[in-house]
Task: structure prediction
Amino acid sequence: VVVVNSATATTQTLDNTSTFGYEEIYLKNIGAGTVTVATTSSQTIDAGTTATLTQFQSLTLRRYLTNWIII
Result:
């Protein structure tokens, strides 16, 4: 679980799926700043390179092969 509380925009970069120790990750933005969720090694999040969370939004991601999918 990753909870972000920032007044300004911030980026959370996901670990590489091949070294990430869990199947799923949950992210929640409780701050006023927008959170950009980014990937590494040309991996994707539902075919995109980033996902964005505004205040009070959350996101659950699951490792799938060498990429991330939103569930």
In short: The beta strands are 2-4, 10-13, 24-29, 35-38, 50-53, 58-64, 67-70.
